[in-house]
Amino acid sequence: MSKQALVCDTTLLFYLARIGQVQLLPALFEPVFAPQSVVWELDSGRSTRPDTVDPRSLDWLTVVDVTQAELGQLPPNRLGNGERAVIACARARPECVAGLDDRQARLLAEQLNLPVVGTVGILLKAKKVGLVPSVRVLLDAVSAQGFRISDDLYHEAVGLVGE
User: Whole-prediction pTM value?
Assistant: First the structure.
């Protein structure tokens, strides 16, 4: 199976690590990137939750710098630094899927014709290839950690995998 490259936003790393499933990223994508601003956001998160994942400890993840020039090519937006960096990085690396959960970030990425996947999509893909036994259990776990998912998306996701 040929794997696509992935550039991760904070939420993917944060929530997948929270439920013990961060290893799904390198199992499904190769290479896996995180912009430096995402690393800084997770560093900041460790000030309140010391068990927050440190991307530098993941030997399969490459931290990348996103230049001001790359960020400057984005249309005006109100996204956070991490989301903007993910989109700019994915634009600069056409082989990359933008790993985003934020609705506005996903909309901008899609307007720029970038492929996008979020936490739910990663869990669905993992189930499809047999890496996890249940999407429902993992969606419940990630929701218990504070991940917001609409009832409609939850039911659509579990319906897609017949759970």
Answer: 0.94
The neighbouring-strand residues paired with 32 are: 6, 61
For residues 8 and 38, what is the distance between their CA atoms, to the nearest angstrom? 8
For 32, the enclosing helix (H) or strand (E) is strand 29-35
Q: How many CA atoms lie within 13 A of 35 on its CB side?
A: 30
Measure the CA–CA gap between 123 and 119, rounded to whole angstroms.
6
What phi, psi does 92 have (nearest 5°)? -75, -20
Question: Cα separation of 86 and 71, whole Å?
Answer: 10
Q: What are the chain's domains?
A: 4-118 (3.40.50.1010)
pLDDT tens digits for range 120-162 = 999 999 999 999 999 999 999 999 999 999 999 999 999 999 9
Q: Which residue has the tokens 């990137």?
A: 33
